[in-house]
Every structure is written in structure tokens, then in C-alpha cells.
Amino acid sequence: MGITVLFLDEKVNLVIHGFIPAGRANHYMPSLKAGFIVKVDRFEVARCSSMYKIIDHPFIIRFISPTIIYEVNTGAPKINLQS
């Protein structure tokens, strides 16, 4: 159990699956707001199990205890919400 997030990589036009474990969810919830662009640092990348695969990308981003999220205020790309 946990929170599934989708990351949009505007540079290469990819969607990447992300996962926040239930034990870390309360820590990250204040930083996850609809319509905001954030930067994520210090995360783990792993192969996505076919059992939990929700997109075609072969990897998943896992939030671990050193992971940090912060809002991008300047120079943020414009993301088409219809994508």
C-alpha cells in the first residue's frame, strides 16, 4: 500500500511511474498538490514489476527516506493538462 504518482518528463515526453510507501505518505502529502510542478531529488530507480505496471516505462521511481520534494517557482515548464 502507498501512493502512486505519475511523473511527466517534458524533455523527452515520457510518463514515469512513481511510488511512495504508506509509511512515508504523510511526510510527502503536504508537497503533493494538484497543478504544481515539483522537483524530486534523492530517490531510488528500480525495474517495474509487470504485476504492478501501470505504464509502458520499464522503471519506477521509489521515494526513500532521503527523498526530498520542492516546488519549482521559476523557470518551470508549461505542462499541457490534456496530456
Automatic annotation (TrEMBL):
Domain of life: Eukaryota
CDD domains noted in UniProt: RPA1_DBD_A_like (cd04480)
Protein name: DUF223 domain-containing protein
Organism in which the protein naturally occurs: Brassica campestris (Field mustard)
